[in-house]
Sequence to fold (264 residues):
Amino acid sequence: MSATEAASARPADSPVVPVADPQHAPGATPPRTPLAARAAAELVGTAALVAVVVGSGIQATELTRDVGLQLLANSLATVFGLGVLIVLLGPVSGAHFNPVVTLAEWWTARRGGGGVTTREAAVHVPAQIVGAIAGAILADAMFGEPLVKWSTHERSAGNLLLGEVVATAGLILLIFGLARSDRLRFAPVAVASYIGAAYWFTSSTSFANPAVTIGRAFTDTFAGIAPSSVPGFVGAQLTGAVVGLALVALIFMPGRAAQAQSGA
Fold:
């Protein structure tokens, strides 16, 4: 029975309770949205995110020589930019902007949960990577930097890779924990806040995103990463995604989730 039919079947004096539109955010791809629209949202959203990260990094280095202030400006811009992008594009694509989130959703779907199909993942991930590269080039263009200049910022130390594992595991735990506990409506604030915090508490400044990592290799500015460091970071991020999913399965067991909802 449709919502309209259900409403018409109620007695005349029964209150009509409006049905709210479902909240969509990372970890919950909206149904019935054309795949082309979702891919476009992922491309544009990832491009905008990288433009914010790289552009704010360039701006910060032009305004101050204090590295702490540079990182503060960079992280604040990323927090606000990411929150806005999730609010704007979440209803279209789920606002992944991140291959590890898309792949984690794909894995969840294969295990019988909600998520993206193999075909959808095969479209979303390339769109995210292309968007990230385009965003880095756009930021360079806005600030008069060479459009494509490989970064010389080496980030290959083991402690940085551990930081990426921690940052990505925490991100996956947050996103899918919110989904399991039916609190995805808080994702724009929660995800943006986590990334902002992870800028500061992880040694790697929390890339936590293979597409963004690839895009940032195309700019030799504050936010750049040397191409030789990219494979290690991506490997650490994929490892972090596996750890994050394991933590979700351990902490948010179906039985525990049901008990939490019944007790709420």
Remarks:
- Residues 35-63 form the longest helix (29 residues).
- Residues 78 and 115 are 26 Å apart (CA to CA).
